[in-house]
TrEMBL record:
NCBIfam families: parB_part
One of the GO biological process terms: positive regulation of sporulation resulting in formation of a cellular spore
DNA-binding found in the keyword field: yes
Region (Disordered): 1-33
Gene giving rise to this polypeptide: parB
Entry superkingdom: Bacteria
Organism for this UniProt entry: Cecembia lonarensis (strain CCUG 58316 / KCTC 22772 / LW9)
Molecular-function annotations in GO: DNA binding
Family: Belongs to the ParB family.
GO terms under cellular component: chromosome
Protein name, UniProt field: Putative chromosome-partitioning protein parB
Amino acid sequence: MSDKKQPNKKPALGRGLGALLNDSPQKKPATDVLPSQPVVGIYEIALSEIQVNPYQPRTHFDKTALEELSESIKVQGIIQPITVRRLSDGEYQLISGERRFQASKMAGLEKVPAYVRTANDQQMLEMALIENIQRENLNALEIAHSYQRLLAECNLKQEELGDRVGKNRTTVNNYLRLLKLPPDIQAGLRDNVISMGHARAIINIEDIDRQLAIYKRTVAEELSVRKVEALVKALSSGPEESSPEKVAGLDPVKKYEIGKIQQRLASHFGTKVQLKADGKHKGEIKIPFRSADDLNRILEILDII
């Protein structure tokens, strides 16, 4: 087997791992004999010689799915080789294919077929992130974190990132915006309590307390994405609410409390509620409605009909 590398090719954007490698992959028969320098090829490598990937973007592996993959590997073997880089003689580091790597260990394999790539730390990070984004079933939050890492750690611009992962800039930006949500909502998205559609609707509300109120209502009432979008739209339109700062006779703390109550009421009823109070704790609450159907919706919430 020749150690000669293939001629370098100009990297092409939007083509996954091929865009990140300076050499052109050439499949070779699996062999136990490794060249003195790492080159692109497929080799049989002992699992004990492979370190896990420190840049792995996936934070959770489904145990049942891993066991099913392990059973499949026992019967069929590994159909798609894993990808590693060589650190030294008898020492490799996983670039991609951690599910296959872990399932192979569960299946009792001693060796696995692997592509050996030449990559520095930054290239390895980029390859690992893009490989997982393209091939693994990452949830929306994991994808968002992967995009953020590509921007921050691989010094990519959003346009370059979009080319790398085959997405337009708007799609990339929609994922990145998810990272601005409060931790509780991010956790709900990570655990599939809500979908990306729910999260994208909620993020259009700027106030964090309102975001959390809508999120809790969404979970409690199992609201659809369309209902959450309608709720957000109702909060974003309608009559101008009275500013707590303009309420006469109240100290700043009371004004702040009135403002928070007003926001919670608005989130609960799905419309901008007006709350007025004076220094003697007297006042009024106004709940506007835009149609007969909207009135019926509010009456249902009040449990009047």
